[in-house]
Amino acid sequence: MVRFENVGLRYGGGPEILSDISFDLEPGSFHFLTGPSGAGKTSLLSLILMSIRPTRGLVSIFDEDVSSLHNRDLALLRGRVGIVFQEFRLLDHLSTFENVALPLRVTGRPFREYRDDVVELLKWVGLGDRMHILPPVLSGGEKQRAAIARAVIGQPELLLADEPTGNVDPQLARRLMRLFLELNKLGTTIVVATHDTSLMDQFEAPRMVLNDRRLNIYQ
Does the pLDDT value for residue 86 go beyond 80? Predict the structure, then answer.
């Protein structure tokens, strides 16, 4: 699903922020990504998302060498990836329902086919009574839940979540993690970036730990 071989990343002429990163993510696996602030977790997720390219080394996603692909081909591969950003990236002119349904709508699925799925998911994440509200009216936690719902509604092959529980209480955080785990059981490969060690301790999953520009994986 994902392969990194001796990957290095720097921005401009600055020093490398990631050095000699090598790992494989098997299809259907679940990993936490953690490390101190500034260690490069968001940059690593961006490399997996193919929104940036490595300075050196091999990044292969879905058996495709990212460095050799044209932008159009990269966009097609990104369509197979769900992403939960720290900054939510909801569209303010669309309702909560419309934001969550967007990944299905852009694939051309008829409204009648996805309406019930979107409504059910919004109820599950506690937004059943907020589905017709615009994002500027939502709280930070509600925006986070909407962003997660949007990322998982299409059952992507690969899901990347950057601090997905950072704006919700511990009880809801566990519930959202269960949603990720259910999606994982259906075959989605998942990487969850988090600082929350107490949350990670509640689930048995390998930890990808970034520190001092390098990555170690602990089973």
Answer: no
| 138-174 pLDDT per residue, tens | 998 899 889 989 998 988 999 999 988 877 788 888 8
What's the CA gap between 133 and 12, in Å, rounded? 41
Question: Per-residue confidence at 76, pLDDT binned at 50, 70, 90?
Answer: confident
Q: What is the 3-state secondary structure (H, E, C) of the chain?
A: CEEEEEEEEECCCCCEEEEEEEEEECCCCEEEEECCCCCCHHHHHHHHHCCCCCCEEEEEECCEEHHHCCHHHHHHHHCCEEEECCCCCCCCCCCHHHHHHHHHHCCCCCHHHHHHHHHHHHHHCCCCCCCCCCHHHCCHHHHHHHHHHHHHCCCCCEEEEECCCCCCCHHHHHHHHHHHHHHHHCCCEEEEECCCHHHHCCCCCCEEEEECCEEEEEC
Structure tokens at 178: 């269960």
- Is position 37 within any domain? yes
Q: Which pLDDT belongs to residue 175?
A: 82
Do the domain assignments include residue 5? no
Q: Domain of residue 191: give its range.
A: 29-49+80-218
Q: What is the pTM of this model?
A: 0.88
**CATH code, domain with 136:** 3.40.50.300
